[in-house]
Amino acid sequence: MPWDEGLVNSLVYDRPDPGEGRVMSYVGAINEALTIALDSDPSVLVLGQGVDDPSAMFGTTRGLQDRFGLRRVFDTPLSEEAMMGVSAGAAMNGMRPVYMHNRPDFVLLAFNQLVTHAPKFHFMDNGQTTVPMVVWAAIGRGWGSGAQHSQAIHGMLLGVPGLKIVMPSTPHDAKGLLLAAIMDNNPVCVFEHRWLMKKDGVVPERPYRVPIGKGICRRRGRDLTIVGASHAIELGAQAAALLASEGIEAEVIDLRTIKPLDESIVLESLHRTGRLLVVDTAWATGGVCAEVGCLAAEKGFRDLKAPVGRVGLPDAPAPAGFTLEQFYYPDAPRIAEAARGLMRA
Amino acid sequence: MADRPIRYRYAGKAAQGFQRFAASKPPEFLIGLYRSMLRIRRIEEAIERRYREDQMKTPIHLVIGQEGTAVGCCAALRHADLLYTSHRTHGGYLAKGGDLRAMLCEMHCRVNGCVGSRGGSMHLVDKRVGMAGTSAIVGGAVPIATGAALAAQMKGEDRVVVTLIGDATTEEGVTSESLNFAALRGLPIVFFCENNFYSVQSPLDVRQPPRSIRAWAESHGMAACTVDGVNVLAVREATSAAVARARAGEGPTFIEAEVYRFRAHGGAGDDSHTGYRAVAEREAWEAVCPIAIFGGYLTSAGLLGDAAVAEMEGRIADEIDEAFAFALASPYPTEADLLRHVYAE
């Protein structure tokens, strides 16, 4: 069994309605975005450890090297910091690199470049340089990924000025946000989630961009607002379905971008529902849960009928064994239970 | 307190080293190199002299003693070639053609500084002259420069990248990673190492084993050489050869030049008296001052007389006075400038 392939294959998702358009896989949507970008802009390059190997970064980069050549789609040395800096330096000189990692854990090796260099240059040199680069990684979960192969690090990056961070939750957004990220003139982190990779969805064939910095309402509801991004939206939507059967109507807000944050979509929804539950694939401490919770306290206080709820990871490293994993990770029933708690408050 | 023993001695030929390089060069070229070094020295001395007035609220890292490398290196470059440096920026900025007024405005925190008072002394950047970037993190600019070289190679530009680094930079893992990648891809880059034997106050032999930095660099699979760093002509010759190799698509070169920092790591004045290095060691190196020995050679060769030097000194002093006056009369940024260029459009 190759790594967690079997686990991800066993996940069950709702089937999209083919009547709404072309249905394609999540992985296919990413592959299509990369293909469009490489095809339409000669400055785009795709690099990363294993982008041209048989597993092709979960399949997202399959066929790209054959089509666009070794110079534009290439495997890298295991030198995360240097390759992050190389990406930044190439971006500062006219290229649009997409630097791919199969886990965010590896991005941590490159924080000196990702935090201290790439997002600072445009400011530091008074706008002389732009740094249009994309850092892509897929958050792991389960099948023994453990403490060092499943970290969701986006919370650590929320406080880094100059960075943008997007976290798609559907194949449609995976394509549209990646294209937007590649054409953006700033360093953009795209954090995918491994568990979304087998989700199918309706994906328009044309090139399109999902705007960075704007959230979207996935489900209307009057009783409480569930807000999050990426795989947390999948769980939040499942929880909302459970709650609906009990007569609780949850609104689900997909942030799409967690930096810069679409404050107004959160505050408008909170204004309608009066209750806010923030869900995230990362630790509840100091990340999206904390930031959105603070937003509600700062700017939506008068709308709150109950304390803000957070559902994220406990303040502990991820365990590797599958029994402990079940206790560690939030699921739809736990999100639903947190929502019921807010309704009682 | 008794002086420490001398650790690092000059190993070059001083003035005897010029003849073999000078013979084929036109006098105006040689005099130009002398003028460039003298100008940098006088600018640095003026900065040092006025530093205590506290008008320049910026950390400074003077290049006094290291003018031969900055000038010799940049004399081998074209306008379109790019230079990336560490925190010790003044020499490279001026030698690459950076504007003195804009530099002094930057150091005086004025809005018309070369980077609008966002960088200070450690981040003197002027893309118009190819002073492309700096990093205040040792080794931070090395992968950026490598990425710039990748961009130049991919775009087929006739452009070479040089990065000025120090001996301690070779201890950073990212430098090794960058050399590896530059050699792997045959990038048009020159890693120019000014080995001044001290990282802040830590001597080389407590930081590196007794093998040459050149040998270390060579082990990455690239051409490497050593050059007398106080001999501006030798530096220029070695850099020209490396640049020619890069331009011809023959890959990167590493150059190690032994030089000596006559002043403290940072701030005005020397700090040898604090005991980390011998006062006699500094004095021995001052006796082979790159400007004095080259001036002596030019005089003995009949190319430079007292009157010419006096005229040169006068012009430089006028230029410096005018630039300081300009800086001191320039406006400060306002609060409205603060959040510009956090993100690029």
Beta-sheet strand percentage of chain B? 5-15%
Q: Please compute the radius of gyration of chain B using only Cα atoms.
A: 20 Å
Beta-strand segment tally of chain B: 8
Which segments of chain B are poorly predicted (pLDDT under 50) over 5 or more consecutive residues?
A: none
The shape of chain A, in one word, is: globular
Name the biggest interface.
Answer: A-B, 43 and 42 residues
CATH class identity of the largest domain in chain A:
Alpha Beta
Domain tally of chain B: 1
Number of strands of chain A: 14
Any descriptors?
heterodimer, A: 345 residues, alpha/beta, Rossmann fold, 2 domains, 7-stranded mixed sheet, 5-stranded mixed sheet, 14 strands, globular, B: 345 residues, 6-stranded parallel sheet, two-stranded antiparallel ribbon, 12 helices, 8 strands
Structure characterization notes:
The complex is a heterodimer of chains A (345) and B (345). By secondary structure, chain A is an alpha/beta fold. Chain A folds into 2 domains: 11-202, 3-Layer(aba) Sandwich (Rossmann fold), CATH 3.40.50.970; 216-344, Rossmann fold (3-Layer(aba) Sandwich), CATH 3.40.50. In chain A, 37% of the residues lie in helices and 19% in strands. Chain A contains 14 helices and 14 strands. Chain A has a 7-stranded mixed sheet with strand order 3-2-4-5-7-6-12, sandwiched between helices. A 5-stranded mixed sheet of chain A has the order 9-11-10-13-14, with helices on both faces. In chain A, strand 10, helix 10 and strand 11 form a beta-alpha-beta unit. In chain A, helix 2 runs parallel beside helix 9 and helix 10 crosses helix 14. Chain A is globular, with a radius of gyration of 20 Å. The mean pLDDT of chain A is 96. Chain B has 12 helices and 8 strands. In chain B, helix 2 packs antiparallel against helix 11 (290-300). Chain B has helices spanning 19-22, 27-51, 67-74, 90-95, 100-107, 141-154, 173-185, 213-218, 232-247, 279-286, 290-300, 306-328; strands at residues 82-85, 131-134, 161-166, 189-195, 198-199, 202-203, 223-228, 253-258. The longest helix of chain B has 25 residues, at 27-51. Chain B has a single domain (21-328), classed as Rossmann fold, CATH 3.40.50. By secondary structure, chain B is an alpha/beta fold. In chain B, 41% of the residues lie in helices and 11% in strands. In chain B, helix 7 (173-185) links the parallel strand 3 and strand 4 (189-195). In chain B, the strands form 2 sheets. A 6-stranded parallel sheet of chain B has the order 2-1-3-4-8-7, sandwiched between helices. Chain B has a two-stranded antiparallel sheet with strand order 5-6. At the A-B interface, helix 4, helix 6 and helix 7 of A face helix 6 and helix 7 of B.
